[in-house]
Each structure stands twice: as C-alpha cells, then as structure tokens.
Amino acid sequence: MLIKSKRGWELPESAVTPENIFLSRRGLMAAGAGFAAAGLAGRAEAQGAADPTADLYPVRRNETYTVERPLTAENVAGNYNNFYEFGTSKQVARAAQALPIRPWTVKIDGLVEKPQTIDIDKLIRAMPLEERVYRFRCVEAWGMTVPWTGFPIKALMDMVQPQGSAKYLRMETFDTQSWAPGMRSPWYSWPYVEGLAIDEAAHDLAILVTGTYGKPVPRQHGAPLRLIVPWKYGFKSVKSIVRISFTEQRPQSFWERLQGGEYGFWANVNPAVAHPRWSQATEELIGGGGRVPTQLFNGYGEYVAPLYRGRERERLWA
Ligand SMILES: Nc1nc2c(c(=O)[nH]1)N[C@H]1C(S)=C(S)[C@@H](COP(=O)(O)O)O[C@H]1N2
Ligand SMILES: [Mo]
C-alpha cells in the first residue's frame, strides 16, 4: 500500500514498477523461498499448533467462478504479503507467525437480531465451506490467483439476522499487540478496519476465508478469518477479523482515513481509472506470470455490476 505524502513510512514509488516487483520476486525465489517455507512450517510445529479445523480440508471446489490463468504457487503467494501490523515490507510471513490464532473469537454486534461472540472453531464448523479460485488484484498493480476456502458472508448474515436499518458491515482486525511490531508505528490508526455495503456483503462472491491451498489459512494471509471480495482492490480484504458490526453509518476504512484522496470506500477495480500516482491498466502477476491487462471489476462485472446501479454518482473506483 502506498500513500502520497513523503514520510518515513512511505514505500518508494519504485515499489509499484513491474521491474521492481519482478526482480524482488525473482530475488526471493533465488534466495530460497523453499528455505523460508520450511522455516515457517517448522515454527508452526514448534508452537505445537495442529490446527483444530485441519480435518475439514481440502474442501469441495465451487466451479461457478472459473479463472483463465494458472494458480499462483503457494509459496509465492505466502511469501509476498501486505500485513502492516507486522511491518511495511512484503516479507512479513515470518513475523506473522507470532500471531496467536487460538483461542480466537469473533464478536458480531450492532444492528442484528442475534448479536454474539462466537468461537472461531464453532463458527467454521457451522458454515458451508467451499473452495473458490479467484483473481486477486492489489491497488499497487500486482495480481495473483489463489484457491481460497471459505463461506459466503450471507451464511453468517443468516445466522445473526441483520435488522432492516443495517446498511453496512464494519470489519475489524485485532487491536495493538506487543507481538505485532508494525503496530508500534505511530503513523497508522489501528486497528485495521474495512467495510462493505450490506448488499455487497450479501453477494455470493463475497466470502470470509478460513483456508488457502486446501489447508487452514496461514497467519500471513490473515488467519483465522479474513475477507475476500475479488472485484475490489486488495486492501478491502481485511485480515484476522475479530469483530463484525452491522451499522447504519458507512464505516471509515483504514486507508481511507489515512489517505482518503487515494483510497476510497468502494474501491472497485477499474483499469480505466488511474490511481493518482500510477496507471491501473495492467497488473504484474507475482511469481513470474508476466504483465496482463486488468479487467473491469477484476473480471467479475457480469456478477457484480448490478450492485452499483443507482450508485453512479459515488466514487466507485479507487
Ligand atoms: N489487517 C490487515 N488486513 C489487510 C492488510 C493489512 O495490512 N492489514 N493489507 C491489505 C492489502 S493492501 C492487501 S493487497 C491484502 C493482501 O493479502 P495477502 O497478503 O493475503 O495476499 O490484504 C489486505 N488486508
Ligand atoms: Mo493491497
């Protein structure tokens, strides 16, 4: 994620150039992504952490949403992450192993008939899990293709029964913690918050993710529960969710609050609408997949365009 004013925390502009991404990716591969992956696995075992939901995976793939390009390799996707709670670089996978993912509860509150604080394992076992292979597009102009396991947010909405006055969902990551070194930075306003309009959340494509690559989701991808809304820029897809509130007012998201001129609420992918500092016309597929044209709504327009009828006057695209 990149922000405008030149401050200590800003990533260099070059971070969004394809050469830079490609070179750093190649560098990482050459320097031993295999070693990094082995290290991560060893560390998780050292924590004695057999995931209590491991028996549920792999899960049946829903073939409704097919993708024309190959999957991104698991160790590429899992070693190139945005998770600012653990630092501003893409190499946060190691640091993220400090995230304690059990016990974990999700508080669901606000304008619902059945507010509750639910244990993550109880929630995961109650929800209809399926695998979805989606395109994923970061606002920084890189993309990947990942098999996510999760469930439609709609299933959770059916459980808690939103009231008629609920217009938005506000989703929040854990608040400041000693084991999350990125949260010591005074520049950001923690916790990370994102939001959706309630009809967006109820769309079948919008899922809460519990797994990737046929296994429980690893910490660097947002364990134990993260959002994936594939037609929007990646920053909408908040990780490691601890609270989901149904609200009447539109929530202000993390990046919107920090740099609202560059990152808005709707943030739908559109190749024709440039970011203030770079084009969104194409994206670099991480892992050496080359540079490809970006698609309107990241290729999901046939499903989601109707959500925005009547909202044309809003800033829908970034
Ligand atoms: N809590 C939290 N969620 C987050 C972020 C973050 O820094 N913190 N980064 C976002 C951004 S900018 C992107 S591109 C995706 C990256 O997801 P991935 O690392 O699993 O690929 O997570 C999003 N969710
Ligand atoms: Mo992003």
Automatic annotation (TrEMBL):
It comes from the Bacteria. Mo-molybdopterin binds at N81, Y84, E85, C138, T173, R226, S237, V238, K239. One of its GO terms (molecular function) is metal ion binding. Residues 102-255 form the Oxidoreductase molybdopterin-binding domain. This is Protein-methionine-sulfoxide reductase catalytic subunit MsrP. Gene3D superfamilies: Oxidoreductase, molybdopterin-binding domain. Heterodimer of a catalytic subunit (MsrP) and a heme-binding subunit (MsrQ). It comes from Phreatobacter cathodiphilus. The lineage of its organism: Bacteria, Pseudomonadati, Pseudomonadota, Alphaproteobacteria, Hyphomicrobiales.
